[in-house]
Amino acid sequence: MSIAVVDEAGQLIHFVRMDDTANSTVIVAQGKARHAVNYRRDTKFHQDLLEKGNAVVLGLPDSLPVEGGVRLVAAGKVIGAIGVAGVQASQDAQIARAGAALLQD
To answer: What is the DSSP letter of 53?
Structure first.
């Protein structure tokens, strides 16, 4: 799997990739993180809209409405995001949420 962390401007500040991970996970993890920070919503929000038939989500620029992108929030402000790719989308999100939860400690 790949894990990308971006700052509030969507710029990559940290990235890790496990050995033998598919090349596509690099781009997908970064895309999920950028989506979450740019739209100030976890990617699951837009995935849910899309699943309900709201196809306008597909027209959002620089978006990746697939679960696994989670905002990083501190003092009520979005300060960045984590994007995870490489396993099932729901598992990607679980891993991203675990990372985001570290800000709460």
So the answer is: T
